[in-house]
What does this fold into?
Amino acid sequence: MRAVALDRFGGPETLYVKSVPIPEPEADQVLIRVGSAGLGVWDIGEREGFVAKMYGHKPTFPYVLGTEGAGKVAAVGEKVKDFRKADLVYGLTWGTDPKAGFDAEYVAVAADWVSPIPSSLPIEQAGALMIDGAVAFRGLDEILKLKRNDNLLVFGASGGVGHLAVQIGVRMGAHVFAVASGDDGVELALRLGAEGAVDGRGGDILASAKRVASKGFDAALFTASGEVANRALSTMRDGGRVAHPFGLDPAPKARSTVRVQGFNGGDYWKVMPRALIRKLNALIESGPFEVHLSRTFPLEKVREAHAALESHHIGKMALLPGA
Ligand SMILES: NC(=O)c1ccc[n+]([C@@H]2O[C@H](COP(=O)([O-])OP(=O)(O)OC[C@H]3O[C@@H](n4cnc5c(N)ncnc54)[C@H](OP(=O)(O)O)[C@@H]3O)[C@@H](O)[C@H]2O)c1
It folds into this structure.
């Protein structure tokens, strides 16, 4: 099969498409014919060896990249009970299996790390859902305990986590205000249901925020940080709740009357957040939902894809191994 397989960790020059054997699924694994492999900022870290180091893995080369994706089950190991050939699934290998990567025509993944695709979502979009979807939903549901009619601020609202959080927040009945990046980011956030949006790369956040939440925001999800983010934090009301995924550097800091909490999408991604993913799937199936793919690439364009990750883009991007 064709796969993005590294001979060593490093820069973009390590990215090649190679012919490697199709993995044999072990007893507890499913073999997936990959339709879509989501790209995220963490792919750069995986390529550079940071993920293997963080999890204490001793990787073997060629090392197939790709931490999340979706496709059709091609075969199942003899102990797998929950999935059958031809099921449509999405899943994760982030930190769980150094031998498996989604940037390939096939991947063998432990069935524990796989979920059915929400029936309304195309495979291409489902491939980019798992990591940012789990973060957005956990942040709003478990960490912020978002309530109907809460005034919610999403900072970084046009990014991978952010554009999903806008839609989930709206579906949960909150009034969503988006701080997005660029005119295209503002347009995306408004199209996805935000009641107001401002460009955090140039717009007047404080004036716009005042118009939609004159008493300050009840809750906020921050997916980007820095000087503008700190300014946006001042729009929280006393007693307001702020959540941010771990990995955000520097982490947001607010005054003492605002609670700030960092979190991971899964329980440090050591256990598949199965109940969370089930609830996320149900929420997605309950109405229109989009994992916005601003660009897709065939495997052969993986260098272009990694370069695109480091420049302005909105929503998510994905490699399509069948293209
Ligand atoms: N711990 C976990 O489980 C976990 C999982 C997933 C992600 N994360 C972390 O969560 C963070 C977000 O991830 P992501 O996938 O959503 O990344 P992303 O797609 O890069 O989203 C971040 C967004 O913030 C935007 N942004 C930056 N500064 C802004 C500003 N001043 N105003 C408005 N928008 C601004 C960026 O836009 P431009 O760059 O285009 O300007 C980008 O769209 C990252 O730090 C990632 O490491 C953690």
In short: The domain at 132-263 is CATH 3.40.50.720 (Rossmann fold). The longest helix spans residues 130-143.
